[in-house]
């Protein structure tokens, strides 16, 4: 398997200071990939800057200018959670361009799959508002790019970050060409993502929200992947799959209350890879969203690469949650979501 990765030091120059979403996240990933000698099994993809035209498929041009101006003025806080530095605009433009580059390389057939290791993350940034550590919605911009450039009819976005990707949800809510599936802790930040929201007009059924109670671990996530995500994706028959990969459902991540393990992420990725192999010639691109415990993040990203490469050995140095509390039962939730979406 030829697996690519996007990375560039520009992503470290989005300087957020003591913020939980900081450059140390990517540094932890890269150094772990180097130490474990996994990096040499991957094909590097140099990111380019996304053009204003490309970004404006998702964001208002005035908003793009506002972010550029804010960087030129030295940065600062855009909302209670989201901060910029002088280089943040450039980093954000290259983050969007990085996911586009990964998409191009996969769609051109040069590689089988890719992971864009970018920051700032994207799935909370709306058409005209930065929020939740995000400036531009990288996955949405790459989706629009792929639809236009390659004249695709159907793209699936699977978002397993612990937070609901409100902005990706809104961008494609009335777009029948894009299936958006999100697993997220609920109720939780940003407050959106009810199961009853399923898309509008001709896009009815192409939004699949899976709001999960706190405490879900590998067993619950795998049930959701097998019983909802896999059949919904198979029914949609995407020609390309993008993944908003957030590793903040890990039990060691302090931002939320899920109990997924590094091994669990590997199993989820294996299901996604199986769907891509079955439905779209393996065409699959991951992009980094959240994940705030450096060890959990680095080992889980490595597990993701191992699965994409076809390596069977998944290293999980953190293991199972130490004080495992009883996970919630989600069988009635799964049943009701299957009913909402008329899944078998
Ligand atoms: Zn998140």
Tell me what you see in this structure.
- The protein is 38% helix and 13% strand.
- It is built from 10 helices and 10 strands.
- The chain has helices at 24-35, 52-55, 61-72, 88-107, 138-149, 166-171, 218-236, 262-279, 294-309, 331-340, and strands spanning 3-6, 43-45, 76-77, 83-84, 113-116, 155-159, 178-185, 207-212, 240-245, 284-288.
- It has an 8-stranded parallel sheet with strand order 2-1-5-10-9-6-7-8, sandwiched between helices.
- 55% of the residues are buried.
- Zinc ion (ZN) binds at residues 161-163, 246, 248, 289-290.
- Zinc ion binds next to loops.
Bound ligands, each once? zinc ion
**What sequence of helices (H) and strands (E) makes up the elements?**
EHEHHEEHEHEHEEHEHEHH
End-to-end span in angstroms? 33 Å
Major pleated sheet:
8 strands, parallel
Which oligomeric state applies? single chain
Number of strands: 10
Structural class: alpha/beta
Helix content estimate: 25-40%
Report the C-alpha radius of gyration, rounded.
18 Å
List keywords for this structure.
binds zinc ion, 344 residues, 10 helices, two-stranded antiparallel ribbon, 38% helix
Short description:
By secondary structure, this protein is α/β, with parallel strands linked by helices. 38% of the residues lie in helices and 13% in strands.
Strand and helix map with partners:
Elements: E1 3-6, H1 24-35, E2 43-45, H2 52-55, H3 61-72, E3 76-77, E4 83-84, H4 88-107, E5 113-116, H5 138-149, E6 155-159, H6 166-171, E7 178-185, E8 207-212, H7 218-236, E9 240-245, H8 262-279, E10 284-288, H9 294-309, H10 331-340
Parallel strand pairs: 1-2, 1-5, 5-10, 6-7, 6-9, 7-8, 9-10
Antiparallel strand pairs: 3-4
Helix pairs in contact: 1-9, 4-5, 7-8, 8-9
The chain binds zinc ion.
């Amino acid at each position: 398997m030829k697996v690519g990765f996007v990375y560039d030091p520009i992503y470290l120059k989005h300087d957020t200071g003591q913020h939980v979403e900081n450059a140390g996240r990517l540094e932890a990933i890269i150094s772990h990939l180097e130490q474990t000698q996994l990096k040499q099994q991957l094909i590097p993809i140099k990111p380019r800057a996304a053009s204003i035209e490309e970004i404006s498929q998702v964001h208002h041009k005035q908003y793009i200018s506002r972010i550029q101006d804010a960087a030129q003025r030295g940065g600062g806080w855009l909302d209670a959670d989201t901060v910029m530095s002088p280089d943040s605009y450039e980093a954000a433009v290259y983050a969007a361009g990085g996911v586009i580059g990964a998409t191009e390389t996969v769609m051109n057939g040069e590689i089988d799959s890719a992971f864009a290791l970018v920051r700032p993350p994207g799935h909370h940034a709306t058409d005209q508002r930065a929020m939740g550590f995000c400036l531009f919605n990288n996955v949405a911009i790459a989706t629009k790019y792929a639809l236009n450039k390659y004249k695709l009819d159907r793209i699936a976005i699977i978002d397993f970050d612990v937070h609901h990707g409100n902005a990706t949800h809104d961008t494609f809510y009335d777009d029948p060409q894009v299936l958006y599936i999100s697993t997220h802790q609920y109720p939780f930040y940003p407050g959106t993502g009810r199961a009853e929201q399923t898309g509008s007009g001709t896009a009815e059924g192409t939004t699949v929200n899976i709001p999960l109670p706190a405490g879900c671990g590998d067993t619950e996530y795998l049930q959701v992947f097998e019983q909802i995500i896999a059949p919904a994706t198979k029914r949609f028959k995407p020609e390309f799959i993008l993944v908003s990969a957030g590793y903040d459902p890990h039990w060691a991540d302090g931002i939320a209350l899920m109990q997924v393990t590094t091994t669990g992420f590997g199993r989820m990725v294996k299901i996604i890879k199986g769907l891509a192999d079955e439905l779209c010639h393996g065409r699959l691109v991951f992009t980094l969203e959240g994940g705030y415990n450096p060890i959990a993040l680095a080992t889980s990203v490595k597990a993701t690469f191992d699965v994409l490469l076809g390596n069977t050995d998944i290293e999980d140095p953190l293991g199972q949650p130490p004080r495992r509390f009883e996970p919630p039962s989600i069988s009635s939730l799964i049943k009701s979501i299957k009913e909402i979406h008329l899944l078998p």
